[in-house]
Amino acid sequence: MKQVILPELGEGIEKATVACWHAAVGDRVAGDTDVVELVTDKATFSVPAEASGIIKEILVGEGGEAKVGEVLAIIEPQTGPQR
Amino acid sequence: MIQEMTICHVKDLGLIDYEQAYVLQKQHVDEVLRGGPQTLLLCEHPPVLTLGRLADGKNLLIGGEELARRGVGVHPIDRGGDITLHAPGQLIVYPILDLAHFGKDLRRYLRQLEQVAIDLLGDFDIVANRFSGQTGVWVGPKKIASIGIGVRRWIAFHGLAVNVNTDLELFAMIRPCGLDVEMTSMAAVKKQEVCLQEVKEKMMGRFLKNFYLQRARD
Questions:
Q1: B147 contacts A42? CB cut-off 8 A
Q2: Tens of pLDDT along B106-141?
Q3: Closest Cβ–Cβ partner in B80, B107, B147 for A39
Q4: Residues of A in contact with B104 (CB under 8 A)
Q5: Residue B217: inside a domain, yes or no?
Q6: Residue B167 lies in a domain
Q7: Which residue of B has its CA nearest to A35?
Q8: Assigned domain for B216 exists
Q9: Is the CB of residue A68 less than 8 Å away from at least one CB of chain B?
Q10: What's CA B22's distance to the chain center, in Å?
Q11: Number of domains comprising chain B
Q12: Are B187 and B165 in contact (CB under 8 A)?
């Protein structure tokens, strides 16, 4: 299992809000797809899946707050041909 | 130590529709992602309202019909912040920058954008400041420049809007940034119209200097 983690966004930024998910549980995503958009202060920040696979679980829903390093979603890696 | 200057393209888009400029921003983000040049886009927009990701519908103070009558579009977009207004006379800067060159720090970048606006206003003998933990730039209690950014793979887009000769009455349509704040412009402070072209040139200069960028020869 691969985790989508809230990355370091800068000094003094300890948390961010999930603005929207671009994928839902069960969706197949490629590693370079932006799966979630975060918002903090006056900035949005898109986070890529990093791993290709199926979204197994979303742990922080839209409007939810999470801390830097917190797991936002879990991806079950899939190898082989896409679709 | 001599730091090598990063090359930056500067494009003046003139008066351009919001959507058109948005498409261009996204194209430039893709270009920077592919290793292309960083670019500073300068423009003005016809009257338009944009809603950032944290926008609260309550901050739009007039109805859809009235907006249509006035020909003012409303766009929900992928930048931070609440509602804002763009209109002719407001200088917009969309820096498409790779923040990997600037410390990968969202807050630091926001402060750097504020500093560009503060320095630019200083060039016109206008004393501007930050205001109690809010993002943006103020002259006394009135807000003169607004900031909202989007970041993808550390490539920044959206940016900074400075009211130069903006018709301030247009702001009555909204509660700017969701704040009970009065907006001002360089013209209102100077009590006379300010040459936008001159502001544009000074903005370019300030931006390149503050971010240690070298303008590309186009």
A1: yes
A2: 999 999 999 999 999 999 999 999 998 899 999 999
A3: B80
A4: 8, 10
A5: no
A6: yes
A7: B152
A8: no
A9: no
A10: 13
A11: 1
A12: yes
| CATH code for the domain in which residue B149 is found | 3.30.930.10
pLDDT in tens, A33-42: 999 999 998 9
In this prediction, residue B85 carries a pLDDT of 96
Closest-CA distance of chain B to residue A39, Å = 6
Domain that holds residue B61: 7-211
B183: closest CA among B140, B215, B150, B153? B140
So what's the ipTM on this one?
Answer: 0.92
Q: Give contacts of A11 with chain B, Cβ < 8 Å.
A: 105, 107-108
Which element (helix H / strand E) includes B71? Answer: none
DSSP string, B129-169: EEETTEEEEEETTEEEEEEEEEEETTEEEEEEEEESS--GG
Indicate the helix (H) or strand (E) that contains A26: none
Q: Å from A6 to nearest chain B CA?
A: 13
The token duo for B129 is 């400041």
Q: Cβ separation of A44 and B108 shorter than 8 Å?
A: no
Closest in B103, B148, B152 to A42, CB measured: B148
- Rounded Cα gap, residues B157 and B36, in angstroms: 15
pLDDT, average across residues B21-34: 97
**Residue B211 phi, psi (nearest 5):** -95, 5
Instruction: Locate B126 and state its tokens.
Output: 């206008």
Interior CA angle at A75 toward A74 and A76, to 5°? 125
Q: How far is CA B155 from CA A15, B25, B75, B200, in A?
A: 20, 11, 22, 23
Assigned domain for B218 exists: no
Q: What is the pLDDT of residues A12-62, one digit of tens each?
A: 999 999 999 999 999 999 999 999 999 998 999 999 999 999 999 999 999
